[in-house]
Amino acid sequence: ARKKKMMRKFEERKVKYGEHTDRVFRALRMEANGDLEHLGSIFRNDGVERCLEAGGRLVAITYHSIEDGVVRRGMEEMVDSGRFKMLTPEEEGIRPSE
Fold it and tell me: Where are the alpha helices (H) located in 1-98, listed in sequence order?
């Protein structure tokens, strides 16, 4: 009941204040759930190496710039370690379709 009441208030404010409340709600949700901490943890303590077999590939889809930054830094550190190679679409022979 409490959650429904909070969501109702949020929806009312969303109508009044628009996208700003979406960003605040997303930030609160991400902090409460520890989203960035969980995302970053895959790049620490050899997490990727434990999950991938030799020759395996890691693909990450991010939905906003905060997540994108965590993934980019993590992947850069992996490549800098010399144990991983960054593949680009061009290297894989993937080209945009017409």
Answer: 2-17, 19-33, 35-41, 47-51, 65-80
**What does the DSSP 8-state code read for residue 97?**
-
- Global confidence as pTM: 0.62
Per-residue pLDDT of 11-26, as tens digits, reads 776 666 666 777 777 8
Question: Residue 82: left if φ>0, alpha if ψ -120 to 50, beta else—which one?
Answer: left
Question: For residue 58, how many other CB atoms are within 10 A of its CB?
Answer: 15
- Rounded Cα gap, residues 82 and 93, in angstroms: 23
Q: What is d(CA 44, CA 73) in angstroms, rounded to the nearest whole number?
A: 11
64 contacts 36 by C-beta, under 8 angstroms: no
